[in-house]
Amino acid sequence: MEFEFTRNTLMGEYYVKCSMGHEIIGRWLQEEIGKDKQKLNQVMDAIERSRTNMSTETALLGKEISLSINEDEVTIQENVLGHGEEMEESSEFDFYNCESTASCGIDDFELLMTNWLDFLGYA
Q1: Which superkingdom, per the lineage (predicted)?
Q2: Which among 44, 49, 94, 106 would be 20 to 30 A from 71, CA to CA?
Q3: Sign of the CA dihedral 110, 115, 117, 118?
């Protein structure tokens, strides 16, 4: 997964852009976590818990986008996808779903998070 961070110095805003197929991860980091130290610490703690106890699943529910860590895989998806209704396997929503959910390995995710902390000047 490739990513890029930018900052609007006039507005004091930070932006995250992730590679195709992982756009939702960038949105999650930018919109749900941002510069909030408490939320950043929760995410880093969840990564550490996953590494020390691979049998536990960790979920952090966001307002619109949530994070789930299960063993060595991280999944981020829009909350509306968890509505419980199963859609046809090849429905017209496939394109939408691919932009609304993404998975990556925990190592890639941890790299993203540590780079974000460095970019913010928290590390």
Answers
A1: Bacteria
A2: 94
A3: positive
How many Å apart are CA 96 and CA 11, to the nearest integer?
A: 31
Indicate the pairing of strand 73-78 with strand 65-70.
antiparallel
Cβ atoms of 15 and 8 closer than 8 Å: yes
Enter the tokens of residue 22.
Answer: 């992982």
**Model confidence over 80-112: pLDDT tens digits?**
876 544 444 545 544 445 679 999 999 999 999
The residue assigned the tokens 């990564």 is: 47
Mean pLDDT over each residue of the chain, to the nearest integer: 88
Q: What is the reported pLDDT for 96?
A: 47
Are 76 and 101 in contact, with CB atoms under 8 Å apart?
yes
